[in-house]
Amino acid sequence: MEHAVTASTPHSADASGADGDPPPGGPAPDAAGAVAGEDGGGPGSGTAGASAGSGAPEPAGAPEAGPPAPDGAGDTPGPGAAETGSEGPGADPDPAGGGTEGTGSEAQAELAAQRALRERIARRKAERGGPVESGAKLSGQAADLLAAVRAVEGGTSSGSDFFDDAPAAAAPRPAAEAPRPSVPRAAPAAPGRTPPEALEAVRALLARGGAPETLAGPVAETLGDGAAGLLAEDPWLVLSVPGVRPEQADAFARALLGPGCGPDDERRAAALVAWLLERAAAHGHTVQEVSAVRAGLAGLGVPDEDAAVAAAVEAGAALVLQDGTGADTAEEPEEAHPTAPEDRQEDRPPVPVLLGLDRYAMAEESLADGLARLVRTGPGDAWEGPDLVRAAAGSGLVVHTGGEAARAEPVALVAGARERGLRALVAVHSRSGCRRLGPRDGAVTVADLLSGAAGPGRDEDGALALDLLAVLDAPLLDVESAAALVEALPDGCRLVLSGDPHVLGAAGPGRVFADLLAAGVCPRVDSRVPDPGPLGELVSGIGIGELNQVDAPGKEIAIVPVREAAEAVHRTVQLVADSVPRAIGVPADRTQVLTVGHGGPAGTRALNTALKQHLNPGPGRFGGFDPGDRVALAEAPGRTVAATVVSASPEGLRLDGEGGAVTVPRDRVASVLRHGWAMTVHQAAGMRWPAVVVVLPGDAAAGLSRPWVYTAFGRAERHLSVVHGVDRALPGAVADVAAEPRRTRLGVLLRGLLAAPSPS
Q1: How many CB atoms lie within 10 A of CB 680?
Q2: If you average pLDDT over residues 467-481, what whole number do you get?
Q3: First-to-final CA distance of the chain
Q4: What is the pTM for the complete model shown?
Q5: Residue 469: beta bridge partners?
Q6: Which of left, alpha, beta for 744 (phi over 0: left; psi -120 to 50: alpha)?
Q7: What is the pLDDT of residues 710-747, one digit of tens each?
Q8: Does residue 553 contact residue 415 with C-beta atoms inside 8 Å?
Q9: Hey, is 166 helix, strand or coil?
Q10: pLDDT tens by residue, 59-102
Q11: Alpha helix positions (H), 355-427
Q12: What sign has the CA pseudo-torsion 210, 212, 217, 218?
């Protein structure tokens, strides 16, 4: 793909979080197979849900029909073989988060600011001596937040005084204990390792509440060994289990607590706020404006949304955050402004009041702190060579953009660094990416690098023993993975984040690569290396919003029009089994089918059923699978491995994948494995195949966007067939439908840190 601009100096661009996100409304329709009661688990059903569906379930978060979860949200199986809707809760809701604790000063600083905020609120409340406008039973931080939000939205306050006591972001702030969590979870138990007595206690409690016993495992994994006691005290904690919806949690609570529980219960408010924020995270957002959360609560029947938000903050279910670092709103010395902060509102710009879950807030601030550290400790050397080499020589952080062919540039940079005697490494998103680069490049996946399964290991300080790390597929980094990676890099290490900015974003929350591109805080190098051939020309046009007709003399591109879903399935099987192997020479096991969603008459389930019957018929003796079946193994949210079933044993199902042989334990087969002749495009992120068949039945039109089409068509190396049943919706989506914006804070946090004086 050709890019017209090459630069090695920082760009100045707006990095503010995405505005105008649709507020999280009431519950959307459940996906088939989601945890649901006999009558859908609605109020009054007397159940908290039942695990439906048979065979191998689809990854949680996958839509049944229509638009997929935005930007790759949620293609990962949830616990207990239950599918969840694309709006459902994200991954493990443990507030500690993965890899974000570390020593990130900004994450600790936000908690310290919260404690200072409470103290100031207590002083102001004592000075006022009167009740807040509404929410009379609230007090302390909850009441003050309610009043502050109404002042901001009513135009009588900028909102900045709500954060006045928070020190400037550049100044180190003392660590503080985290706010009291509303869900006092233990560490989630490893799958299959929950003590039998704990599971039995959960089963008994679920039976009392009319919930299916199949939820016992997921509840124990989410809430820990003390799940039964926690759930008995607060039944709405069941809402933290992926797949459970508010109406199901309400029914469960009514069955346990009786008629005394109502929609205004503060425990319900805290759980619903956390659920809305988790659902927003599944769509890529790290924070939400208070107004969006209030709108979601209104759709869930909460009688006083303001009081519910304030109560949730008081309980620690959510954090109050700024859209920025606080450096431009920090309080100046009293002698400079003898008047009260309320008298100076007109001098300050409006500051949106945001809500976020602590795991993502901590990760985002820790990531900003780590990236700023790399920028400040950059080596400042001078190397001769291409633009990327010169940029990496003098800076600790570089962003590099380009298509598939441009991946050779950071790979060459790493090879040259090794020749200079530096410890350098290439990291990619998927094992498929390692295969594409080849063994000489020594690439590892980001997940294996962080876990220690591959890579150079850690030094005596716990940092990765590296002088330069080039991360390909950087747009697929979510905020937690990026934070863990950056925290592991030593001072003075060079980090090059490389990727194609047009592809679908990360499956988890955050838009790390896009935020860095927009922030303009480090050198940016745009590759001029075009992707070759007709496929490269086609995908390059899509990247700028044009679906061009290109010449394909070698049958690189084929359009197969269809009128209905049944015809789309039939033509897809024909292409994979006969046409592509015969005309292109690519066998069926190297041809991948991609579509919009799992459900519907031409979703992955229907396509996989048809392809299995034709290519590898069998009874599915091993949990629905037979030797020779192609499968998709969900290692973690956003990380799918393509593999083939080899055999079964008492230990589990043996697979042969791109990362080598692997055995999936018997009790995990149903939740992490599904047939893989057909995948969603989100599952295929970071992977490529010699031939790809993209299926676009008529009901797929609503799920199309330019990034989706760009990513789908770009998975093909030699041949692309498009089973086309959406008529003008395809060029319309390429021209007009951008990715759903994500609400994040990384850009403003990072710019604020680097604009402030360096801490001593």
Answers
A1: 28
A2: 97
A3: 44
A4: 0.76
A5: 425, 495
A6: beta
A7: 999 999 999 999 999 999 999 999 999 998 899 999 99
A8: no
A9: coil
A10: 333 333 333 343 333 343 433 333 333 333 233 333 333 333 33
A11: 358-376, 387-394, 408-419
A12: negative
